[in-house]
Amino acid sequence: xxxxxAWLLAATIYVLLLIALSFGLREARRWAxxxxxxxxxxxxxxxxxxxxxxxxxxxxxxxxxxxxxxEPPLLVLLRDHFVACLVISIVLSSALYGTLAVFVVGAxxxxxxxxxxxxxxxxxxxx
Length: 127
Prior knowledge:
The protein is mostly helical. It is 69% helix and 0% strand.
């Protein structure tokens, strides 16, 4: 596989990765804003906070703090800090994918001594 074709394939996969990441995070935000603002979700969160409050009063080997927020953290994160989540996800995914792409394209590319081999000599025969 030529290096140019490998980079083109890597760029195409990168664009698909960004589309999937953006779509997935947007769908997670939509799910959170639909399911975590209901009365049942609010009751579950308050019940959880009450349990934590009881555990903190009883004492024990681990001291827990009662969450201050009256809303579930996932809802607050995806509703109020969505842009930050998206930017961080894109930056970290890009760094990881870029590193992986360089390794894979380098592994699929020609060996450095291929271009200096004399005409008619098969590089695979040399060891």
